Amino acid sequence: MKKKFSFIIAILFCVFLPFQSNAQLIVHGKAKKFLDLDAHILLGGSYVTQNYKSCYPQITDLNNSMGFAWGIGVGAKLNFTSFVGLGTEFNYLRNSGKMDLAVTSETNQNVSNVFIENNYRTVDIPVYITFNFNLAPSVKWNVDGGIYFASGTGGKQKATIYNAKVNELGELMTTKTQVKSNYYDDNKAFINSYHDFDMGLHIATGLTFANKISVGVRGHFGFRNVANSDGIVSPNAHNIGLFATAGYHF
After folding, report:
1. How many whole angstroms separate alpha carbon 73 and alpha carbon 90?
2. Are 66 and 96 in contact (CB under 8 A)?
3. What pLDDT shows up at residue 16?
4. How far is Cα 229 from Cα 125, in angstroms, rounded to an integer?
């Protein structure tokens, strides 16, 4: 994921770098607009890291996949100069993710396959320093860095468990169980639920055309362990979000 994110940044830079010969790359003078407001959409993926296999030796196989995520938001930037400013946003995101794992007993006579689907919603507020470069008279390239704060507003987890075991007569018996729970702060969730507050690194880059239309990419990498577990074993989980954005500036 990080390699794909770096590749997109490199492509944006290489495609538009030739334009800088027509404009001064860095301008330290007064910005044309001190306050820049925009509305935008976000499309991408959400991912939650975990260390289940190191915590539970009974897990023999595990696949954790990034889910589709999208959102809408508004942003505001205070342009102290044409080159540097301070920005923040208010975003509403809908995230998802899937995981499947195999659990085997010590005797190998009982095997379970677990399929987990997560869907959850967050309010996301990044605060960042933005640096602006003039690639052409009507094209600006921004590089942003800061922190984000996220608060979960709701979500669901569905775990489907297929269990197979050999009984005393040597017969293979199978059962299917479904467990539904809340995504945030619910002790009925499989292994663990998740805390509804997170914060982490916000990095982004993009292009703005004619001070009106912007496109870009961004990444959010959570600092906090968001796994909510009351057991003796405490797993570790961190949020990652990768998005493409498109916006209109007023």
Report:
1. 5
2. no
3. 47
4. 26
Burial of 179 (0-12, 13-18, 19+ CB in 10 A): middle
Which structure tokens are listed for 71? Answer: 């959102």
The model's pTM? 0.84
Amino acid occupying residue 154: G
Query: Over the stretch 164-193, which tens digit does the pLDDT of each residue have?
Result: 877 776 677 788 899 999 999 998 998 999
The per-residue pLDDT for 19 is 47
Q: Which helix (H) or strand (E) holds 54?
A: helix 52-55
Per the rule left: phi > 0, alpha: psi between -120 and 50, beta: everything else, 27 is beta
Question: Which neighbouring-strand residues pair with 64?
Answer: 99
Radius of gyration of the chain (CA): 23
Residue 229 pLDDT class (50, 70, 90 cuts):
confident
DSSP state, residue 184:
B
- Please report the pLDDT score of residue 129 as a whole number: 97
CA–CA dist 231, 236 (Å, integer): 13
Which helix H or strand E contains 210, and what residues bound it?
Answer: none
Phi and psi at residue 91, to the nearest 5°: -120, 145
Nearest to 99 by CA among 42, 157, 165: 157
Query: Which two tokens mark 102?
Result: 């195999």
> How distant, in Å, are the alpha carbons of 7, 78, 100, 107, 192 from that of 112?
39, 54, 11, 13, 17
Nearest-10 Cα torsion for 129, 134, 139, 145 = -20
Q: How far is CA 177 from CA 163, 166, 192, in A?
A: 8, 18, 17
Identify the CA nearest to 157 among candidates 134, 176, 184.
184
* Bridge-based pairing state of the strands 84-104 and 193-194: unpaired
Return the H-helix or E-strand segment holding 199: strand 197-209
